[in-house]
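User: Teach me something about this protein's shape.
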Amino acid sequence: MQRAIEAVERAVTVTFILIILLATIAFENSIVVEGEKQDTTFVIQISVTLANSSNGTKTWNLTEDRTVNLFMNNTWQTVQLISSSLPLETMTVDQDGNPIGFLQFPQSELKPGENISYTITYRALSKPRSLPNITEDESETLEKIPDELKASYSGAEGPWLVNDQELQELAHTIAENETKVLTIIKKFITWIRDNINYTINGLLPHYPNQTYAERKGDCDDQANLFITLCRIYGIPSLLQIGGIYLPAERTNKTFWEEHLTLDYERIGWHGWAMVYVPPWGWLPVDLTYVAGGLRDPLNAINQAAVVTFQEVIQYVNVTETDYIASYRRKKDFLQNNDFYVHERNEMAQEVSQGDSGKEIVDMWLEGALIATVVVTVAVVGIFLHVRKLKKEIKRG
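Assistant: First, the predicted structure itself:
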């Protein structure tokens, strides 16, 4: 009897060691699987209906409404136009250097009671992203910024009120004669973090002087104030806008006295700044969508949404167009002529074979860990029972 008990005891010990090894291997594998970043593919679909009210009296000339943006391509993403319900007539670049296309409409105008619709679909391959290690000690000074970049991206174009005296005073007060570019940027980020509240202002963006006066603004409002301060100080900067995959997003809103309707499904739109910082070059500065928050102001760069999340797809750059004025003209145009726009944006993630394989591995690991727990409980029970038998033998 004693020998049998000792044999069971040894078997239990060996089994317990094997269980620990199995659990360790499964845990380590789970860490590796979760830590790997792979290319991720998304499908973005934009559907638009332009309608002239049946009660209207004016004709809608469609000359300027045939333009569609084609997203940008760079080292972080590759975007293709995979389908269009209307033929694409030509492709070119806009004033800001973004790729655009012109749709071939079946008619050149909409009379009262008429409408026209189109749907365009893109496939976006989003790649893992990273930035160089940036520190204030390694930052170069203003004089290291190339003159051609200053000329192209530090002027008073677009919505950036570089010549506004109050904003000029603000920029110089914050910067305090600093010359290191990254340190200046850090000061601007800190001031906006501490003084501008995040508020959604509706569909119409605010100019930087309005954001400064009201001490509030949403993503592109704050970005435009930051860009203005940078440009005043001679630091090249621009606005970038992108779409974000948001699986839970379901939004239907109307604007401009119901002349504009927007439906968003699994997608949101976001704006941030791009700024030139020598010696590293162009870096994102995100003031409102930052994974680690802005307690460390440089998180606006290192933890910017476009860096941290592959779910962000870069859409367009705004380098010199006054898009705020364009929005306001569009609002007046629709309301004054009784025209209507209904736009639906959708975004979906494609599941690749690699993702399916990862799901299988995750399921196997989960099953292995559950089985490990169950067997461990059983082994411990056996071990305790053996100890009890040994005590009873000794008493006997």
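Now, about its shape. DSSP finds ten helices and 15 strands in the chain. The first helix runs from residue 2 to 35. If you'd like, I can walk through any region in more detail.
User: That's plenty for now, thanks!
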